[in-house]
Amino acid sequence: MTEKYEAVIIGGGVNGLGTAYHLGKKGFTDVLVLDKSYLGYGASGRNGGGIRQQWTSEDNIKLARESRKMFERLDDELEEDLEFYQGGYLVLSFHEEEAAEFKENVKLQNKLGVDSKFLSPEEAKEIVPELDISDVVAATFNQSDGTIYPFKVIHGYADRVREIGIDIKEHTEVTDIVTQGDEIKKVKTSEGNIKTDTVINAAGGWSSKVAEMAGAEIPNVPVRHEIMVTEPYKRFLDPMVISFEHGIYFSQSEHGNIVGGIGNPDEEPGLNQKGSLWFLKNFSDTLLDFIPRFSGVHMIRQWAGFYDTTPDAQPILGSVPEIERFYQVNGFSGHGFMVSPMVDKVTAELILGEQPSMDIERLRVERFEDMDLEEEGGVVG
Amino acid sequence: MTTVVCRCEDLTEEDIVEAIEEGYDELETLKRHLRLGMGPCQGKACLLLARRILRRETGKDVEEMKEPTARPPSRPVPFSLLASPDEGGEDDD
Ligand SMILES: Cc1cc2nc3c(=O)[nH]c(=O)nc-3n(C[C@H](O)[C@H](O)[C@H](O)COP(=O)(O)OP(=O)(O)OC[C@H]3O[C@@H](n4cnc5c(N)ncnc54)[C@H](O)[C@@H]3O)c2cc1C
Ligand code: FES
User: Residue A285 and residue B84: Cβ atoms within 8 Å?
Assistant: First the structure.
C-alpha cells in the first residue's frame, strides 16, 4: 500500500520538527516527518546548546535575534521546561586585529537590535572570575545569549507536532526521491513508498545525499565536530565562553555539567562520528589555558556529530531551481540550533506560499552561482 | 516498593516505566530524556538493569539496538590528566 501526504519532511532534528511545528500551527497537518534513526540522532541531539546572537553577517544576526526571542517564548508554547539559561556569551580575543573587528561587529549588532558590548580583559574577568586574562586583548558580551537543552526542544516539538495531528516515523530511511520532469512524485523509504509533491530536506549532515536523490545539487559537506561533558557541579560559570582563534567553546548546563568542544582545523570532511584522542588532549590543553582552575574537573563522556558545512558558512533555505517544491533547510555549518525557530517559521511560510517574515533571498542555493558571497566569519568549533 | 535503578541521577524503576509509556521507548532517547546512565559512573551501575526494564516493557530486543557512539572513559578523568604534561593547569606537573 502506498501512503500519501501533502508534504514529507526528511530529518527528525530540530529543523525538521520545527518546520513541522510551524506548518501544523498554520493548520497544515497532512505532513509526515521521517528519520532514519531516532529523533535527535543527528547534530540536534549532539550539540552544545549554544544560543548566540553575536554574529558578523546581517542575515545571521537577524535570524539569531528573532530566534532568541522565539526561544524565550517556547517553554510556554510547548509547555516544557527547555532549560534556556540566558547567562550570556563571552567572546574572547587574543589579538589587536581581531579586537578591532569585534568593535565593528558590536556596532553592527547594536544597530540591528542586539545589545552586545565591547569589554576590556578586566571586565571579562568580572563576568568569569576564574578566567586567565594574561593573553586576552578584548572581549564582547551579550547577556541575552545563552544555552538550552537541545533534547528537550526536540521532544517538546515532537510531542506538540503529534498532538496537532502530524505523523512522525522513526527508523525509516529515505532511499530515493522520484521525480518526473521538475515535479516530485514520491519518496521511497526502507518501509515503503509515500506519494507526495512536496519534500523538505532537513537531513543535516546527510542533506547533500538527500538532494542528490532528487537530482538536485547543493554544495554541503559534512565535517565531524567533537564535544565532551564533565560531571555536574554547582553553578560557577554563567556565560558560554568562546574564542574563534582557538576554536573552543564551553558553558555550564542547567544540570551543572560543563559542556564544551574544540574544532580541529585539519579535520577531513566525511561521515565519521567517532571520538578522538586528539580532541581530548587539545580541548583539555586549551581549556586549562583559559581556566587553570578546571584542572581538577572531571570529564565523563565525549562524542561527535556533524557540521553540515557550506562554502560561506551560511545555511541554504528555500526551494531549488531544478525541482519544484523541494525545500532546503540545511547547511547550518555548526549553528543550526540557535537560528532554527526563525528559519523553520520562514520555511513553513515559503511552503505555504505566504510572504516570509524575513527575507531569505540571499540564503537560497542560487547564491553559489550568481552572487558575491558574504562569508560568515563568526563560526566556532 | 521503589527500586532505584540509576543512583547517580536518582531514577527509580517507576520513572523509567513512565518515560517508556510517554514514548521514550529506546535506550538512546530514554537516556537523554531522563539523563539515565549519564552520571559520573556513566551507566556502569544502571544501564544493564535499564535495558532489562526496556525489554520487559516494550518486548523489543534491546541488546540488538544500536550501541551509542559516545565514548565514556572508564571512569571520570580530571582535565589535568588529559592535558599535555608541560602546559595547562596549575597543579598538573
Ligand atoms: C558538536 C556540535 C556542537 C554544536 N554546537 C552548536 C551550538 O552550540 N549551537 C547551535 O546553534 N548549533 C550547534 N551545532 C549545530 C547544530 O547542532 C545543527 O546545526 C543542528 O542541530 C542541525 O539540525 P537539523 O535538524 O538541521 O539536522 P540534524 O539534527 O542533523 O538532523 C538531521 C536528521 O536527518 C536524519 N536523516 C538523514 N538522512 C536521512 C534519510 N535518508 N532518511 C531519513 N532521515 C534521514 C538523521 O538521522 C538526522 O536525525 C553543533 C553541532 C555539533 C556537531
Ligand atoms: S547509576 Fe546511572 S549513571 Fe551512574
Answer: yes
